[in-house]
Batch of 4 targets.
Target 1
Amino acid sequence: MTQGVRGTRDFYPEDMRVRNWLFERFREAARSHGFEEYDAPMLEHEDLYTRKQGEEITQQLYCFEDKGGRRVSLRPEMTPSLARMVMAKAGALPTPIKWFSIPQCWRYERTQRGRGREHYQWNVDVWGANGVEADAELLSVLAAFFRSVGLGPEDLVIRISSRKVLEEVLNSVGVSGKAFPAVCVIVDKMGKIPEEAMSAQLAEQGLGADAISKIRSTLGSQDLDALESALGGGSTAVSELIALFSMIEAYGISEWVAFDASVVRGLAYYTGPVFEAHDRAGEMRAIVGGGRYDRLLSALGGKDMPATGFGFGDMVIMELLATKGLVPELPTGNQDIVVSRDEGLRPAAMSVAQRLRASGRAVDLVLEEKRLKWAFRHAERTGAERLVMVMPEEWGEGNVRIKDLGSGEETDVSFDDL
């Protein structure tokens, strides 16, 4: 059997080099904004997810009963684990908490472009900060990352709205209580399904023609001034968004973002600003999504704390980078290739390799008898800087021959001076 489980991926060394490159860009963007890295177990109690999101997610969980009779699950996302960790040290952690992680997550769902059953997800969160300053900071982290991998505002856009906009609009047409989440799911499809289909689904929720028209016109707005006219000057949602966009301008990232009232985000626990990044061509799934979720802890049995964050999967961004020709060709990281000319010099070659490694060099020792021509090709293929040759005559004089693969120059160097 040569194929892995459906929906999973193998990472060969060349794939791992690219993955590590991507993850380091994630880390650099977060650390440059003062975030610290954390981690949590891949295995959690099943009810950590079912309590937060209800029964729907149970169809996507990789869950089972362990040998102690406990219901456990592979994590489908990191936020519940983060919430558990914050609750475990409630009151002891200095706020604001600025943490990030790059966990592997698992969901049993239909595989499609940009989505498998396992993926890595960069999570960046701020806990304990009430104002939209924290939300603006997250958007700055995203812009820093996009710049670091060669993407620009012409390649993608971060669309921003607020769940408070949705609440004000839906409340104005009488949608509240249990009907609210169902209507949110429908509104989230705006622009993704035909208008007639959306209107029909809203009608099934008991909404009349006038209410449907107001929902579609207001939540289809991409102009903050027009939204303010529709909701009135006293709108809390509009005031909050105006403040957020002012901070975005202060960060110098206005060209990366746009207001779009139709951005809802699928999870019902979002409470304030929400955002998604999409490629400008509109050919791919959302690259990243997030927002404010101030009431998560109470859903898990704790005391609420203001929080905002995003989840950024590794699959869609790699598709976008490949489309733009921005995936780098990365060398192995080997600096020196050490090769002996005959089997009798193998121990000497081992000593040479160890001496170089002790000096901080990354060294690949050729373990079998190979011709120099092969060693040259191997050095070129792996991107090494030097070929270090242990040859009978030179070694007899206590030297090795080093070829600089950049300049082509060859030099004899004593073993003691390596």
Note: The mean pLDDT is 91.
Target 2
Amino acid sequence: MNFYKATTAAVAFCAAGAVSAAELEVTHWWTSGGEAAAVAEFAKAFDATGNTWVDGAIAGSGGTARPIIVSRIIGGDPMHATQLNHGRQAEELIEAGLMLDLTDVATAEGWKDIVNPGSLLDSCTVDGKIYCAPVNIHSWQWIWLSHQAYADAGIDVPSNWDEFVASAPALEAAGKIPLAMGQQAWQSSGAFGVINVAVGGPDLWNKINVNKDAEAAAGPEMAKVFEAAAAARAMAANSKVQDWNQATNLVITGQAGGQVMGDWAQGEFQVAGQVAGQDYTCLPGLGVNEIISTGGDAFYFPKQDDPEIEAAQKELAKLLLSPEVQVNFNLKKGSLPVRGDIDLASANDCMKKGLEILASGNILQSGDQVLSADTSGQIEDLMVEFWNDPSYSAADAQAKYAEIIAEAD
């Protein structure tokens, strides 16, 4: 493709024309097999410019990594670049003047014309200035189903959420865990959000999360969502793993029927050599409301008192959105590219489903784009309590949830 030729030429020019090379420490929480393979594409491309990617992987989830990242930045020991999610996670750091303004890079590279949807770049923008480089679109709105588990149980692979719930007794009788679920707060909170969109519908989700409508949060349509979440809790009762990729492995190995997890799970299926449509099925919107959320990952660049480092930071920011790097990274990550002008003909069936939905415009923002970190944290705390305590009724959990939305910012 011409994109690839242009990018290769640009990289070669940068490497040949650079006055000096820089080492950039880059922090992120991509440590599973699929994630590590994907981030290696970023490192390889940056090293090819004559600079050096110093990998600062932080084991664990974003919930583990983000406090470490923020603490280092405000404590005067900033890394040179760091992964965060699209949205409001870096809001206070930007307002404190601790993040590098990338508006000149974004303008020169035409990001406003190529980033799709535009809400991703909006999430990087504060007071008209752009502070991050969005690198992918990750959607939470998926369930992943094991063909082996259903074959062992002697029943068909479900095509929607209701069929999945109905399949639970047969799976249990075959010694399977119906729903694989890790024990971390963000996993149960994320799964709840997916159930919210599938069962309650996008309009209800927007009323509550975007408009902060506490009456809708306390209403009868949301009651159905909490009842569905209680059913999911029961199906996941015997899933004792901790990390999300351990839960994905239960599906890959046929020990569990399914997992509600974002499309980053695709990277794990790929590393395991599994084929979409043959070894596993993916259902966007739980097969009920085929929609994707447009959250994902972005890179921010803490300010440095060094012109050479700053030049390298901006070079990395530009490279992250280059066509070839976008293709190579996202094919391994399982995410969708932020560029709307590249060819992904080699994408698997699940990624093609996501691309089709994206092209249709049937999208919604992710929770971390519309809720503050404090509100998101309160919802996570509620979900930990709800998922871990079978005696916590759906009605009581909904009442607490409505209180949180009423105070949301």
Note: The longest helix spans residues 2-17.
Target 3
Amino acid sequence: MTTSRDVVLFLDTSVTGNGLQFFETAKAIGLTPMLVAKRPTEHAELTHFQNMPVRRMSVEDIVKAIDDFGRDRIAGVCSALSQRAEMVALVAKAIGRPHCDEAVVAVCRDKFRTREVLADAGFRDVLFERAWTGEEAADGARKIGGTVIIKPRESSGATGVRICRSPEEARDHVESLATTMPQTRDIGVVVEEYIEGPQFGVEMFDLQTIAVRRKHISPPPASVPIGMDNPPLDDPHVCARIAAHAEKALKAVGYTRGPAHVEVRLGAKGPCLIEINPRLVGGVGAENVRRAYSVDMIEATIRLACGLPYDLSRKKERASVTRYLLRDGEAVSEVLGREDALAVPGVVEVGFFPDGFSRTGGARNYEDRIGYILSECDTPAEAIAAADEALRRLRPVAESGWKTGLRRLLSR
């Protein structure tokens, strides 16, 4: 008797935000989404949501759980987390399902290895050094000269990333990372030349450019994405150069199948490769693309993982823009103005991230984004204007001082 392959596994995928879209899309195309995690999770909106709890998030334990469940039921393996990209490839390979080359994924996940492989392929667009200690980071910054950017080798969402204007700042930041991200003491960090110029996100699938989006980044020293223009107002010839550079980089590292989010800056030397992410763009980036072009990259990602056909052709040509509300210093109790923001013509979504409300201090990474605006209009200029106006209408309310003090005391 033949068993239908109707289950798609998601490794450690959140059941909110972008992760929730993965689950809902899987359901929409007739698959049963199943979360593989150490702790079972439920979500009221997912009527066919299932759990596959495992003792450890290891390839061995996951494959054992799959075999106990029934390997023939599994159509494919996915994750919305970049940290699980290599594990997705290894699990899918172990059970004979479509998968990327795990060695190539590992190169893309490791920012230093990415730089090494690109350098061997002739890329000389960004100077870089590797460092384990603060003094090594300072030495690397001196060799490169000027402003540098420090990146943990396997971080995502701008976690641990900092722009450093001097060797002393580079040293201090790496010494701080040794405490906040202890793994950096073992694998080191990348010290890179900081490229001045506009930044772009290139959304690719099977080496095909799906979208080129202008990215807006928070002021230094952090480097948090706070907006995306899709498509950008930039000259189409500039966007074509950006896309060609991204495609060349993907070919150089051997990443030729599936979704990739490639970041490129347009510097004085031309397009400069910032990083390669062997996954679909995070946040609401995929929704930008779907609204602008009617290309569903989440559905294509699931279908690829399950060996099903997928369509990446554009069905329309509109514009969709995202703006993120970045927490400004202290903790927030609430954000007012949602209805006012939604009243702006062209604004289609206004959402909040309450998990970030209680954070304090300067913005450090994506977790300091506490809300977002999504617009859809006929032209980029209209979509940008709508999103910017809606963002101005959001009003964060600072948390009362005594609440902040009590929370800090209880967290000790």
Note: The CA atoms of residues 345 and 386 lie 7 Å apart.
Target 4
Amino acid sequence: MWVNMEAQLLCLERKYLRGVPFYIINLMKALDNRNRNQYMLSFFDYHKERNNKRYIEEYLYQHLTHTELCECNSLSFKDIIDATASDDHSCYSSKTYSQYMGKKADLYHFPAPINIPHNVDGKIVVTVHDVLPLLDEYKQYWTGDHQTNFLNTIKYIKENEEIYIIAVSKNTKGDLERILDIGRDRIIVVPEAYDEKKLFCDKNRERIKSVVDGPYLLYLGAIDYRKGIVEIIEAFDMIKQHYFDIKLVLAGNTEQIFQVKLEKALMKCKNRKDIVISGFVSEDQKRVLLSCAEIFLFPSEYEGFGLPILEAMACQVPIITTNVSSIPEVGGDAVLYTRKNDSCDLADKIEYLLNSKLDRTKYVEKGKVQLNKFSWDKTAALTEKAYVKCYGRNYE
């Protein structure tokens, strides 16, 4: 069976890549390695104006053996974005998706529920990572066009019963069933995983001296509105009276919508001089930052999956996170849970772990066991089962 994976979301500079692009990269490597199907990667680049092919080749295509590349140069992806926002899909009605790409597939896998063309001439599987734009408490953080595109795409998925959904967690599946009333038979849970080849314990502190020197607490990921960043800063201020030498590293790109709130929190912090805002860090720096941290802090309000938790486990660092949304599915009993939006409780949990090397070691050892539940090969195998269910027959 020919399977087309849309790779448009890889067409970004590396520093802007987040969860979905890494999902595409790691899943496609695993699928290609298993070699159970024939695969295509598709993307748009009108008249090759953006040279998107360089991103696809750099991040992914050079690592694949059994996958073809399909590039559309006669239609802009912006046309599809605009079509989704207006719910007017006449811009590409003269051709099917496969005609634009130059090759027909049996099944088309879209790695995120946004901007799915309505001229796809084959079975469709869509991966849903979370439903944040549908949740009342987070709607304010989404721009009008992005939210409209998400809602219109979700509406299209809901109304077309032949479209199957891969949910990256049981929590996301539950959200889809509860909020959208999508039948559970159309939703297959396929957990994500971590990059086993890139993520391993590396305590070479020399490689991160330019970022931080001495003991530190770490948050690593997008610095935005739902990650508990303000609570981390407040908790850090509370513990500093007992731990004079420790620093706090906030690593990752800051979302523009969160910038003002971050600056206000930093201004209130009495220990601002001991907080490092590193910005984007490379994969090598990320591994060492995680491995050398005293504790990894991830007090998120909501996660579709919670990949940073697995990454921290792989780097053998104790983790404090929240017992909300999908996080317990990922963390199991290998993490210490704190209450959501509670900086005092977070400070107590930090002090608890800092005071007990034995407990820090206990959580690290449990993390090694928990990691065994996740791998990209397992994710790929379950994804292949989702393809079988969507396609409607056993093709092996």
Note: The radius of gyration is 22 Å.
